[in-house]
Design the sequence.
């Protein structure tokens, strides 16, 4: 609920004063409502990267970047990872409440029914060149879903949000596992109705006709934890893409496909793969300080991947949980990954270095995630796909919230810095040019 403004900010432009309402939410940042600014003054606001702009009202997740807190629908992530499973969190994000027993059963049934991909879509996988990144395959396949599944119009999708949500969450999991199987030249494994969401995914990834996969309960629990921690993160880059594209009333599948493309970037979800590549480089070189120096050098584009965040000014609370889980799991499976040691040493050096301390740069969610995925047997080019699977409920929840709130089409302004009017005589007439 948006509270009625109790305070106003006064903006002075020359000798004119404009009264702008101050908007307060339940918690967190207050904002100055500038929606009438252009009409009243002819001016607009400038905020590249939108770091100071609330582009919407939302009640899905809350971050306190100073304290390092993250809550979904009011519930801290620390509670959720201890007490519920990923499908509960998916339901919570989309519906606002954790599911009761009957709601959970229905949602689970839907996830099962919708887990099969249209058989004709399987041929698509054969057409991608060998070595295609699974994130590219995934965004293409999801975009294609609109052609295979009827009722993609906005109203049908929003009216039957449970089915739409279950279909996209469930099928994408199947597509991701199929993409992996294709990439290693093995036959695909179909989803099973007797397995939970995460166990099913692991089975589709790793079962084979010649080597049955043993589903380890601790690996399933861990995947649940990782998926829960990645499920939503308010107005991050890919969610902003989802809300922007969705505001043009594009169908859900095309919208999610765009979110996946945004997530694939190395400054966003692609960072989990980039972290492992960086840790391997540091490990092989052996000189951590050299890489820290490179990250600090103004003339070097190198950054410490998995460090820094637009919102957190302290440790990312997800990284804190994943760091601990990482140590526990590697101990449990007797895995001695030298990259974990490199990560610990890098964290220790960087978090004491004035450059990182002054800029409040701490490990983010991606710093330890890749090491865990490696230990679980997930190949590196699938890391960002794992992030995408986990983020689906968040994207769907934001899409639903945006559609339901009657949001106007997203259409920002700009400050034009190009050429002034070019005179007509300076534009050569090329209609009779011989060069076609
Ligand atoms: N290594 C070295 N320096 C850094 C790093 C880093 N990882 N991150 C930020 N800085 C420096 C910048 O050079 C800048 O320094 P300056 O003030 O001297 O110019 C300052 O810290 C602020 O950096 P910005 O880029 O302005 O911060 P912004 O909030 O725009 O970027 C981002 C956040 C993209 C996450 C950035 O910290 C980064 O590139 N990190 C590495 C990539 C990464 O881990 N991404 C995953 C983020 S989590 C997620 O998306 C799921």
Sequence:
């Amino acid at each position: 609920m948006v509270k009625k403004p109790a305070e106003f900010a006064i903006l002075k432009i020359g000798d004119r004063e404009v009264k702008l309402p101050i908007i307060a939410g339940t918690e967190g940042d207050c904002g100055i409502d500038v929606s009438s600014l252009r009409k009243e003054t002819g001016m607009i606001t400038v905020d590249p990267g939108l770091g100071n702009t609330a582009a919407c009202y939302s009640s899905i997740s809350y971050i306190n970047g100073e304290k390092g807190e993250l809550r979904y629908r009011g519930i801290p992530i620390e509670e959720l990872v201890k007490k519920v499973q990923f499908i509960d969190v998916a339901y919570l994000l989309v519906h606002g409440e954790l599911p009761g027993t009957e709601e959970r059963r229905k949602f689970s049934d839907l996830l099962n029914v919708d887990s099969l991909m249209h058989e004709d879509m399987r041929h698509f996988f054969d057409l991608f060149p060998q070595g295609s990144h699974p994130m590219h395959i995934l965004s293409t396949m999801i975009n294609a879903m609109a052609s295979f599944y009827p009722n993609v119009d906005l109203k049908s999708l929003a009216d039957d949000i449970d089915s739409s949500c279950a279909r996209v969450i469930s099928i994408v999991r199947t597509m991701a596992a199929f993409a992996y199987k294709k990439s290693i030249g093995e036959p695909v494994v179909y989803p099973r109705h007797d397995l939970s969401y995460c166990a099913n995914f692991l089975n589709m990834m790793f079962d084979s006709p010649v080597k049955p996969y043993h589903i380890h309960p601790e690996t399933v629990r861990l995947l649940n934890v990782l998926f829960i921690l990645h499920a939503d993160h308010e107005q991050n880059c890919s969610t902003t893409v989802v809300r922007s594209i969705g505001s043009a009333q594009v169908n859900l599948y095309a919208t999610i496909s765009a979110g996946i493309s945004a997530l694939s970037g190395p400054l966003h979800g692609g960072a989990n793969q980039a972290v492992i590549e960086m840790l391997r480089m540091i490990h092989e070189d052996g000189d951590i300080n050299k890489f820290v120096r490179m990250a600090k050098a103004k003339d070097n584009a190198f950054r410490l991947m998995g460090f820094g965040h637009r919102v957190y000014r302290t440790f990312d609370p997800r990284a804190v949980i994943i760091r601990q889980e990482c140590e526990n799991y590697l101990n449990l499976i007797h895995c001695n990954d030298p990259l974990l040691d490199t990560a610990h040493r890098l964290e220790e050096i960087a978090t004491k270095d004035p450059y990182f301390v002054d800029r409040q740069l701490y490990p983010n969610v991606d710093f330890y995630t890749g090491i865990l995925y490696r230990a679980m047997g997930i190949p590196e080019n699938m890391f960002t796909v794992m992030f995408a699977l986990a983020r689906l409920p968040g994207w769907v929840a934001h899409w639903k919230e945006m559609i339901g709130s009657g949001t106007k089409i997203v259409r920002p302004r700009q400050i034009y810095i190009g050429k002034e009017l070019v005179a007509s005589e300076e534009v050569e007439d090329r209609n009779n040019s011989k060069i076609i």
Remarks:
- Residues 49, 267-269, 271, 295, 303-310, 359, 361, 364-366 surround acetyl coenzyme *A (CB under 6 Å).
- The chain has a mean pLDDT of 93.
- The two ends are 60 Å apart (CA to CA).
